[in-house]
Amino acid sequence: MLASETCRLRDSQANVKHDSIIDAVALITEAVRRVTGKTYYDVQLIAGWRLAQGRVAEIQTGEGKTLITAIPAFVFALAGRGVHVATTNDYLSRRDYETTRPAFRLLGLTIAHLDTGQEAGDKRIAYGCDITYGPGYEFGFDYLRDQIERRKGEAMRLGDRFVERIRGQHFQTTASVQRPCAFAIIDEADSVLIDEANTPLVLGGQDPGPQTDPALYRIADQFALSLSEGQDYRIQNGGIIELTESGRRLAGTAFENLPRKKMARSWTVLVHNALKARIGLKPDVDYVVQLGEVQIVDANTGRIHDERRWQGGLHQAVEVAAGLEPSIETLTQARITRQRYCQYYDKLSGLTGTAGENVSDFREFYGLDTDIIPTHRPSQRQIVPARYFANHADKMRFIVDDAMKRSRNGQPVLIGTRSIKESNAVASAFNRAVTLLNGVQDEIEADVVSRAGQAGAITIATNMAGRGTDIAVDGQAKAAGGLHVIATEHQDSPRVDRQLAGRAARQGDPGSVQFLACPQDTLIENHEPKLAATLAGIQLSTGITAAHLDSAIAGLQRDIDRKRFEMRRQMVARDAWLENIQNTLAKTG
């Protein structure tokens, strides 16, 4: 019955029209009710309606984003051109796929999940379905793979094509895995479309050219360790490392004494990479070592990405700094920024718990309007005034004391940290068992999250706790005040802070949140030394609350957001210029 209604809607529309959207929303809500027993709330229907119109919707934690996403996915699928539902990682995409699959099948739609490492034929089948779920980066990488295959076909010599023609053979390039980009629904849209907009998706292959001898990476690493900050190199704003006159002179002397070995890059580049690996990139902050490999940590989410690699020999320098053998350098075969890739879709929509701060970004760079969707129940979240400390040790003592006190009273506590290194340090400060969720245990995330809302639980997490995780609080915990979130430091963006705060008081539950700060926090140390000096003068070891310090933090975050907005604007202009040059060369060539 429902499947026949789907066919009727498909036959009645060439485009996604207003009346068709109304009928489609009614149909998907009935399918969800039949397979899950759940009925959509009015606010969920509003959110789904807005997304089906190609907009960004701010939807708070616990409001049912997975089922809300099913509404625009079904509406878009009626056009028969394929819908991509992109989440931040494989765990979330598979969870959402498994949740929605029964309803879509009841409606007569085909649905698939993209798995990393799938054969091209299997992926082609997945993309041929009405709706395809997967991690966002996998859609981008498949697009790049298709572009590489297309270029290979275009590069085939004219003579080869002529010979095939006279033999009666038809020249054909390898069939694309993806269909043309039609519809996409982006989960955590602010993270993907804004925070990671500048981060390119890079598809690499083994470089057939000359490779730098591994011994030279190790020599450069030892040379970098011998240099002194201030005398031989300086760290500029933005973390740029620059050799001084003394450093350049020492590098020149070292170059003259190098053994005669293959060098694919200049000695200067090897030295700068070694310095960056030793000083600019921190273990358990920017990367982790797992399974004998260097794996990059996403600064925005705290998640580990084994599919990413630093380019230009930097990855090999980090491997040596981590005590590993340098891997073979890869050649960049294709690359595209996430922003540029998402702009190829005919219709784009996105949902996130924090969109209000970036309305201008969504409109200027993607042409998307933003809607703030109200919660089903009024929020009971209590904001405890931020607390400021003179040093990291005082702040750490407060974290342990406050968390233990609340835990003894039966209140669950989530401690949000900026890095894996910090989460490990906080965990070691407790003399009792605590639970870690820091990207290293990504595969057991669901189990960790399910226990974080239990009475008296103490969970320590990196930013990943603020992305795609839903912490349900049990009855005893609610009676004790609900989940309390302790943010060990502010993030560069207030939006990321708000994302973590959104873990508390979900769906009308009680809950609270408090932010802490000290001079050693990354935000303050990197961007506002005057504020660091002010905090260092605090006399009370238990910290203080102060409205003027709250204002200083908020102002600092606004300044950083403005600068990054301008950087994104410049990147868009650069991408447009490069594309124009490429098109011109293609026409003249």
Task: Report on the architecture of this protein.
This is Preprotein translocase subunit SecA. It comes from Rubripirellula amarantea. This protein has 23 helices and 20 strands. The protein is of the alpha/beta class. It has three domains: 237 residues, 3-Layer(aba) Sandwich (Rossmann fold), CATH 3.40.50; 117 residues, SecA, preprotein cross-linking domain (Pre-protein croslinking domain of SecA), CATH 3.90.1440; 170 residues, P-loop containing nucleotide triphosphate hydrolases (Rossmann fold, 3-Layer(aba) Sandwich). A seven-stranded parallel sheet has the order 3-4-2-5-13-1-14, with helices on both faces. Helix 20 links the parallel strand 19 and strand 20. The model has no long low-confidence stretch (mean pLDDT 89).
